Amino acid sequence: MTEDILVAGETLIDFLPGRPGPLADVSGFDRRPGGAPANVAVALAKLERPPLFWTRVGTDPFGRYLEGVLESHDLPDRFLERDPDAKTTLAFVTHDAAGDRAFTFYRDDTADTRMEPGRVPDETLADLEWVHAGGVALSSGRSREATLDLLARAAAADCTVSFDPNARAELWPDEETFRTVCREALAHVDVWKATVEELEALGFGDGEVRPEEIARDALAFSDGKGDGSECGGEGPHTVLVTRGGDGAVAVASERAPWNATGESPAIVDHRGYPAEVVDTTGAGDAFLAGSIAALFEGRPLESSLAFANAVAATATTAAGAMAALPTREAVDSMLEGR
């Protein structure tokens, strides 16, 4: 097996509610594995692209459970770190009547906040083609420095670097810190996946919900055209904007290898696929894994966006971020209308 992709970030426990409603009104929860990077890593494995996964869990029972989950999905444990001095992060999820969710975290000095810079050596990065990280690891602890260090070295090693801000306001001290740190990360990023709300929180767009225009504004970040938004490196050449059940928009500059149109930028709008939604937890992570897999394989932007939307739609049909992650065969069936 050739390991060409590395995913980095948190693995945690999601406690899913027995019924919709505020956390104070829910009496029963179901334990499920989660964490956005862990969801991406498992989704890639299900899509026959198992990545290396750099993560850190406690040696408590929750951490041992998560180790078993990652092993069951045949993810290599080369960069699975076990912290004997910290607990594993817990996240309690609540759902509204439409299936949309909110999170309450227990993450004070937990294992995933204690990742150390340099744990993925330069020799490993030199052999990789793609590195992905998420924004939760940037929110606190040494993991912020460790993640920024990884992204910078991955970019220097000519890896394609992808990033998902995965905004969780309760994990950040304030909006300005979120914006400043994520923009620092974006200096090293090629492919950027976000929601409209996340792009607006990072200072893009004008408050109007127009995904295509906001994506174009975000892409201008790499050219130093955004008001005060200049980045240290070349910055993203591809922005993927997810819209829930309405699909996604992709905008790619002429620097993107999958921009075969010659347009600057190339714009693709895909309306997604219908699904009987049970739980949207992890749908964005499934979309991102589908995007990475498709773009990594050299598919055109339009085909990649369709593939990613099919992965995301399937992932909403069962409770839990990992429970409904589809196989490649299932995705192909949806794409073919079966």
From TrEMBL:
<keyword id="KW-0067">ATP-binding</keyword>
<keyword id="KW-0547">Nucleotide-binding</keyword>
<keyword id="KW-0418">Kinase</keyword>
<protein>
    <submittedName>
        <fullName>Carbohydrate kinase</fullName>
    </submittedName>
</protein>
<dbReference type="InterPro" id="IPR050306">
    <property type="entry name" value="PfkB_Carbo_kinase"/>
</dbReference>
<dbReference type="GO" id="GO:0005524">
    <property type="term" value="F:ATP binding"/>
</dbReference>
<comment type="similarity">
    <text>Belongs to the carbohydrate kinase PfkB family.</text>
</comment>
<dbReference type="InterPro" id="IPR011611">
    <property type="entry name" value="PfkB_dom"/>
</dbReference>
<dbReference type="Pfam" id="PF00294">
    <property type="entry name" value="PfkB"/>
</dbReference>
<dbReference type="InterPro" id="IPR029056">
    <property type="entry name" value="Ribokinase-like"/>
</dbReference>
<dbReference type="GO" id="GO:0016301">
    <property type="term" value="F:kinase activity"/>
</dbReference>
<feature type="domain" description="Carbohydrate kinase PfkB">
    <location>
        <begin position="3"/>
        <end position="328"/>
    </location>
</feature>
<keyword id="KW-0808">Transferase</keyword>
